[in-house]
Design goal:
This protein is of the alpha+beta class and about 325 residues long. Helix content is about 25%, strand content about 25%. The chain has three domains: about 80 residues, 2-Layer Sandwich (Uridine Diphospho-n-acetylenolpyruvylglucosamine Reductase, domain 2), CATH 3.30.43.10; about 110 residues, Uridine Diphospho-n-acetylenolpyruvylglucosamine Reductase, domain 3 (2-Layer Sandwich); about 90 residues, UDP-N-acetylenolpyruvoylglucosamine reductase, C-terminal domain (Uridine Diphospho-n-acetylenolpyruvylglucosamine Reductase, domain 1, Alpha-Beta Complex), CATH 3.90.78. It contains seven helices and 20 strands. Strands 6-7-15-11-12 form a five-stranded antiparallel beta sheet, with helices on one face. The longest helix has 19 residues. The radius of gyration is 20 Å and the shape is globular. Bound molecules: flavin-adenine dinucleotide (FAD).
């Protein structure tokens, strides 16, 4: 079916929502990979969002939510869906009590959690090292250094069809780099309420610094990537130690392997980096190669942590 994009844009513009046509999605991705999208819509409020989602549904144009683009591999041909990027009020965050904050889904995780930490709140320092937006982090239950987003979440506000629903943490299924929202593709995260507590500012500052330095030491810096490509398999070795994906990739000698401009990082081999003009298909090739080699040698099926955004083969 041919979608009358011009008519759809006309209807969307009645609400003054920001619309961009024929945008290379590479500019919205930390991999700097991705083809041209026919339509990028940037709703600035819940009303704008509801209107956009209803119109897209009326015109039968599928859509995908794009946060900071730090956990996705965008297709080289993302031409069969529209992209929604939350903006405006969705970027805000506010203190709502002595120990709680409301954070919009489009807020940038690193500065927000750093700022709240520097206000003297503890237990959030690890979150300030994860790039991307709060919405993308919630969906994935992003985490690091033994902590995860759902440690601090109390409520998640979600748009389902045209209804805003407030879900308490106890009503949400979540686990290691997983939440129910990954399956419910019609749920749009609007914002979260987090619970925290006051701590000693000097200790917090030290913890922020330590975590930043730990990352610098172990990960490729200022390189185009989407972080860890594979989840850790949650399997232990004979001594009871958890096996990490990077160890398996290292043992099948794929550190430094390239395809086009895509490379399995020398520094952290669970990262794939784009050295210039890598295509999604190049990264996909390396992902499949890793999975095959690891399975053939260890019988372990690695699961992707990054998500494919559109068709990739
Ligand atoms: C250098 C580097 C280091 C990283 N380190 C870590 C780490 O330590 N721990 C970790 O967990 N991750 C890490 N990541 C991965 C990534 O930063 C996180 O997964 C992050 O939370 C993704 O957020 P995002 O906004 O970029 O999501 P995106 O990549 O934009 O999207 C991811 C998914 O979320 C969906 N989505 C986005 N916003 C919404 C919304 N509002 N409602 C519904 N769905 C939405 C998208 O459709 C997509 O399915 C790292 C990435 C990089 C580049």
């Amino acid at each position: 079916m041919v979608i009358p994009i011009q008519e759809l844009i006309f209807d969307l513009s009645k609400n003054k929502v920001n619309i961009q046509r024929d945008q290379p999605l590479s500019k919205f991705s930390s991999f700097k990979i991705g083809g041209v999208s026919p339509l990028v819509i940037e709703p600035a409020s819940v009303d704008d969002l509801v209107n956009a989602v209803c119109l897209l549904s009326n015109y039968s144009l599928p859509y995908k939510l794009l946060g900071g683009g730090t956990n996705i591999l965008i297709s080289d041909t993302p031409d069969d869906f529209a992209v929604i990027r939350l903006s405006g009020t969705f970027k805000d965050y506010n203190q709502i009590s002595d120990s709680s904050f409301y954070i919009g889904a489009a807020a940038n995780t690193t500065p927000v959690f750093r700022n709240i930490s520097l206000m003297g709140y503890t237990g959030l320092e690890f979150l300030s090292t994860i790039p991307g937006s709060v919405g993308g982090a919630v969906i994935q239950n992003a985490g690091c250094y033994g902590g995860e987003f759902f440690n601090v979440i109390q409520f998640v506000d979600v748009l389902k069809k045209d209804k805003v629903i407030r879900l308490a943490k106890s009503d949400i299924d979540y686990g290691y780099r997983w939440t129910q929202f990954l399956q419910e593709k019609d749920s749009i995260i609007l914002g979260i309420e987090i619970q925290t507590e006051k701590g000693d500012l000097e200790t917090i500052e030290l913890s922020l610094k330590e975590k930043r330095e730990k990352r610098k030491a172990s990960q490729p810096e200022n390189r185009k990537s989407a972080g860890s490509v594979f989840k850790n398999p949650k399997i232990q070795d004979e001594s009871g130690k958890e096996i990490k994906s990077w160890e398996l990739i290292d043992k099948v000698n794929l550190r430094g392997m390239t395809k086009g401009d895509a490379e399995i990082s020398q520094k952290h081999c669970n990262f794939i980096i784009n050295n210039g003009n890598a295509k999604a298909s190049d990264v996909h090739f390396l992902i499949e190669l890793v999975k095959e080699r690891v399975y053939n040698k260890f019988g372990i099926t690695l699961e992707k942590e990054i998500e494919y955004f559109g068709k990739i083969n």
